[in-house]
Amino acid sequence: MNTPTTPGLDTQVFDVVGIGFGPANIALAIAAQELGSPLSLRFLERQPGPGWQEEMLLPESDIQNHPLRDLVTPRNPRSRYTFVNFLFEQGRLFEHLNLPLSHPLRLEYRQYVTWVAEQFSHQVDYGCNVAEVRPLIESGALSGYEVVCTSGRVVRARAVVFGPGRTPHVPPVFETVADPRVVHLTRFASAFQAVVDRVAAPRVAVVGGSQTAVELLLHASDRLSRGSLTVGVTRNFGFRLKDTSPFSDEVYFPGFVDTFFQASPQDKERLRRELVFTNYSAADRDVIDALYVRLYRERLTGQQGLRVETLTEVSRVLPQPSGIELELHHTVRRTRATESFDLVVLATGFKDLGVGPGKEPYPALISGVAGLVDLSSGALGVELDYRVRFADESRAQAAPLYLNGLCESSHGMGDAGSFSLLSLRSAAIVESLQRRLLRRAAAPAGGRSATATAGAAPADPITA
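Above: the chain's sequence. Below: its structure in C-alpha cell form.
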C-alpha cells in the first residue's frame, strides 16, 4: 500500500476495522482487550454517539433475554464489563434484584450497552457512515481493504469485521414505496413522533406478527389521542405465543452452533422450520395478554381506537396526499377493503443470508468485494469462525473478512440478534484474527501495522 494522496484517505493502516459499533462489535472490543490482543482496532459507527436501539426505546418493553447473557459474562464472568458490575457501579444492584420482572427493561439495558461503549470511545469514530468496502490488490493477491465513508473519508485495514446489524426486510408490496410515512420498525420512534406532531388524530397501521409488532400496537394505542386509530395487520390467525421451552432455548447454547453448522442444507432448513417460533412471528405471553385485554376493554367501553386484522395481507399500497392507502386482503374470506393511514410501520423483521424471498446473497455494504468471495451456493459462504470464504482462498489469506452477527443461516439462532452468544462469537473472531494476522511479521507495503512486530503496542487513535 503506497502513501495515499487521495483527499480523505488516512495514512495509517489498521490491523482491523470494525464496521458498526453496536452490541456485536462492542463485545468484539471487549474480547480483544481482555484476551490481550496486540491488534490495532478501529470501529466506524454511523450514529453520532453510543447507544442501542434508539428508534425502538419503548419505555415499557423488556429485553426478552436473561440479563447474564450480556456482552461478556458467558465468556468471562469476572469481567468488569458485566451487566451485574454495571448495576453495582451505578448503585442500583439491590433495587434491580428487587424488581418484579423476569427480564431487564430495555431502557436499562440501553444504559448498560452505552456505559460499556463509552469505555472504548478512543477506538471508535462516530458519525462515520460507511458507504462501501473496496479490496486492495497487490501482485494479484488481496492485501487489505479501503473502507469508504459517505463523508469521503477512507480508512485502510488488513482485515474487516462487518457488524452493522442485519438488513431490514421489506415485503415486496412495499419495496417500491419511497414515502416517509412508510417506515421499517428501525425508524419507528422518529416517524411516530413526526406523525403525532403533524396530525391531530393519527391513523397508524402496524404490519407484522412479531413481538415487536405487539409492543408497537400497545405503545401507539397508549400514546395516541382520543379519536386516533391503531390497526394491527397480520397474515396469521392471531399473535402466536413464543416457544420458550427450555429444550427449544438450547438453540442459544454454544454447542448448538457446531451442530447447526455441520448440518446439511436440508437439515438446516428443517431445524429452522421447527425452531422458528423461538424468535420469529411470535410474542411473549405478557404482551399478548396485554393486547388481548386492551382489545376486550375497547369493546366494553365502545371505543374504536385499536383494532387487529388477522388472516390479512396488504395487497396494494398507494401513497396519497391524504395518507397511505392500504388494500387489505382477507385470505380466507377473499374480501378486500381499502383504508388510509398517516403512518405505516413494518414490523416485518430482517433479511438473512441466502437465496429466496426475504433473503440476500450478501450485505450490500460489501458488494465491492463480491467478485472475490465464494458465492457458489448463491449466497455468501462463511466458515465456523465467522470468516467469509473467498473464491480463491490462496490469494486472500492475508486479508480476512468476518461477519459479526449476520450468520443465522449458517450458525443458527444464536446469530439472530440475540445477546446470548455475542461474547463467545467475539472471542472466536479475535482468536481467528490473531492466528491469521500475527503469523505474518511484515505489515502491508507502504504502511506499518501495529502487528508488524508481534506484540507491538496498538497504534494511537486517529483523528476523525
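The chain has eleven helices and 17 strands.
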